[in-house]
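Problem 12. The chain below contains 326 residues. Write out its predicted structure in token notation.
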Amino acid sequence: MLAFTIRRLAQSVLVMLAVALVAFALFRFVGDPVATMLGQEASAADRAALRDQLGLNDPFVVQFWNFITRAVQGDFGVSYRLREPVLPLILSRLPATLELALVSGTAAFIGGVGLGIYTALRRKGWLSNLIMTVSLIGVSLPTFLIGVLLIWIFAVELKWLPSFGRGETVRLGWWTTGFLTPSGRASLILPAITLGLYQMTLIMRLVRAEMLEVLRADYIKFARARGLSQRAIHFGHALKNTLVPVITITGLQLGSIIAFSIITETVFQWPGVGALFINSVQAVDVPVMAAYLMMIALVFVVINLIVDMLYYAVDPRLRADRGAAH
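Solution.
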């Protein structure tokens, strides 16, 4: 287990370096931050002075090395647009994004697993067929259109829920949360549904397919022949083996929820990191864009590491294969 973890950590470091290199190289071609900061009427001398101040005249290797050494220390520079340190700027927006991702991810996992099990065990029932038909909406419709439809129905027509913003928040140290206020909880419902609907349908279909395959396995037939109850067969044997691939997909989907919350945050004007990234792209704010991509890469790397370790712990075949290799 220790050797497995060390090897995964080494791979994670290489992935982070590769992402940093690609991101830093691509952002050299998205535009000129000096023109955005000074405007078109600035003199050539002012432009040259600002480029020298920002280190944009240094060779690419020097710029990348400076970026990496500072990033390791938690220093991602200063935002070109807001003239504030990047790390505190991202941390101030991070609670909103993580709160939204936590709620939508939890709802997607619970709803996806529950509906997947039900549609697998009752696959010929009318309700199961209805659920599978309705689930096509979550797979087919783009996220922004789902958000707009929810706003139109529940905010404009029914006036039950707010259409934008995070509502009233409470500060707990550096963290801000809307869980503790009625308006904060109400503001979270529509964005969470919008962000988690696709993931829920994906998990549901995966669980259903895996459950149906497991129920046809020989050891399930043997368990029935032994006279075990349906509950013991379905939840003691079938579900345990069904969840092995689901762990991998769910982990990746949690990373996707955080990474691709940009669209949902834009539609609902949610004050998260995704909205900050969109504004930074428009202003060619390279430090913020680079820090955001590094953060997303770190999220995926950590989640993949956790998923690999859980997969190793859940699936005894991996431990047996590794023991046989030694």
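Discussion. The CA atoms of residues 66 and 249 lie 36 Å apart. Students who got a different answer should revisit the alignment rule from Section 12.3.
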